[in-house]
Amino acid sequence: MQFKDQLDFVRQHIKKNKLRVFMTILAATMGTAFLIVLASVGFGIHDTMRKEILDNRAVNEIEVYSDQMNESTVEKLKKRDHIKAVVYRQSMDLQSTISLDGFEGSQQLIITDFKEEGKVGFALKEGRLPKTSNEVVVGSHFAQNLIEPGEDPELPVTYDGELMGKQFTYQMGLYDEKESFPEETAFTIVGIAKEPAKDWIQDANIYADESIIPTLNQIYQANVEEPDGELFYGNVKMYADKLENVKTVSNALKEEGYSVYSIADQLEQIDVFFLAFKAGLVFVGTIAILIASIGIFNTMTMAVTERTREIGVMKAIGASPKLIQRLFLMESAWIGILGTVIAVILSYGISYIANMVLPMIVSAALSEEDLGGLDVTFSIIPWQLVLIASAISITVAMVSGWRPARKATKIDVIQALRQEL
Amino acid sequence: MIEVRELYHSFKIGKKGKEKEVPVLKGLNFSIQKGEIVSIVGRSGSGKSTLLHILAGFLTPDRGTIRVDGTMTTSYSEAERAAFRLSTYGFIFQNFQLMPGLTAFENVELPLKLSGVDRAIRKQKVKELLTIVGLTDVQHHYPNELSGGQQQRVSIARALITDPPIIFADEPTGSLDSETEQDILLLIQSLNRTRGITFIIITHDDTVAETADRIYRMHDGELKEGGVTHAV
């Protein structure tokens, strides 16, 4: 029998029992949709957590510590394989005094390499990057940390004027001395950094290029008779080109004696946890499909019983047992396939609505405008989930139809032909 | 064409453990020639239907052999018997045994579908046969919309569609009135003459039996040749 004729045959039988087949497909649809939607929550939460970590651009970040850290070491680190950028930020262990239009502050000066910063997401809200040693970029909260002196400390007046193009003076001083060094360094603000991704992080720093280092060293040496070590101390953050390479880079650095910290290991643990979590959800969802399979088994058993005489006639005129079995398996597979297709479409709909409505409900319940700035995805249906659910659903449908199909092949022709119409 | 040797069969009756064996066929030996119409006549319970079921491959005999054109069919597996039936046998049943969900056309077409014949060839062959049996007008009717005679004609057309050399007819006129019975018997004779098909008719009706070239009489599980008849 040609495949097309087999399909026609199955279609004709399904048409004859529309209501019963519809109810069975409905049960299969509900079971499969339940599995997909349930597991999609696992995928959604996992994705939200990953996104949250990735938003902090920390996932491929490797913090590197070494007593011997200096410019040449950093240059060597930059040349390693799988490295996207090496950000070497240097600060001074001194107090600082900033003066701008009569307002004062004590923001920290950070010396960095803007080219490397740019590679890993350091972006400006306004302006441009420094071109000369006296040009700086300030953090987005720089102005809020400039206070008018002599005012009530409980109700400070902060600077709310224009920052771009403004000049301010910078003075250094030792923590244990009241007076700062007399030398003032003038800086011009040429850019304002983009606000940090997290609301609770404040960035009031001053970012300057490393070309200012000689000037600051000179001032330091002129005011401190016996300098205690280096003026600058730095921290190095390396960024791997891909998440998969973080481990390789970290291990290599550890072997070379560097102290290394990355959150990729934590992420791996999170992935393992969510893999188990999602597997659990798929298992629970499979139980729903198994319940639906009882309906398929029932429908197929009834179909075989009702068609005993027809099966007998077909066998009498020459239909092989294999063909009879195949026709019934195709019918149960058809129920499974149709149920799965509808379930997938339905699940995407439910997932879309859940992602739209649930954040609103949760926000309303928490009486907050948004979820604390969190971009929460409640449900995600990746193609892998569709594939897994489809495979489970269709397999279960075919297994449910297996026994009735076997029963059909065992029908005795003589007994079947004796049945009344 | 068909050669039956030492064919034995019995049924077990009664409760499990206390079964009683009832012999139905007691060492039958006979042969049927190509192009013959053979009737097997007997009373109810004589074993004629069991013989038909064994010849058709619906039942496996306890002992004995059946050769069809030299091929021993009794050693076939179930799947092989099904394939052999499809290619070699046609069946006409007393209750017509048509598929209620298929039209007359589709019922006749069914064996060709099982054989995997292409749709275009199927269509042409079914149309030809429906013309021969005189059912062109009702080809799209379902069995419950046809008279007994028409249903039996559909059944005959279905039996003929694969051009089988042998057709088994089990009480082919058992559900028909006498006028229609004559029509069907004439059709069988005509098909036998024009197509050279061997007909094996199982009946309890002497009128039907006399249509045959040869009559075998079944009595108490034994078969005796009843002589050559004159065609109706």
Q: If you had to describe this structure to a student in words, what would you say it looks like?
A:
The complex is a heterodimer of chains A (421) and B (232). Chain A has 421 residues and is an alpha+beta fold. Chain A folds into three domains: 203 residues, no CATH class; 61 residues, Alpha-Beta Plaits, CATH 3.30.70; 137 residues, no CATH class. Helix content of chain A is 52%, strand content 16%. Chain A is built from eleven helices and twelve strands. In chain A, strands 3, 4, 5, 6, 7, 8, 9 and 10 form an eight-stranded mixed beta sheet that branches. In chain A, a hairpin with a 2-residue loop joins strand 3 and strand 4. In chain A, helix 1 packs across helix 9, helix 2 runs antiparallel to helix 7 and helix 9 runs antiparallel to helix 10. The radius of gyration of chain A is 35 Å and the shape is elongated. The two termini of chain A are 26 Å apart. The mean pLDDT of chain A is 86. Chain B is an alpha/beta fold and 232 residues long. Chain B has a single domain, classed as P-loop containing nucleotide triphosphate hydrolases (Rossmann fold, 3-Layer(aba) Sandwich), CATH 3.40.50. Chain B has a six-stranded mixed beta sheet, with helices on both faces. In chain B, helix 3 crosses helix 4, helix 3 runs parallel beside helix 5 and helix 5 packs parallel to helix 6. The two termini of chain B are 24 Å apart. The chains are: A alpha+beta (421), B alpha/beta (232).
Q: How would you sum up the major sheet of chain A? A: 8 strands, mixed
User: Major sheet of chain B, described briefly?
Assistant: 6 strands, mixed
| Overall average pLDDT of chain B | 86
Tell me the span between the first and last alpha carbons of chain A: 26 Å
Instruction: Supply the number of structural domains of chain A.
Output: 3
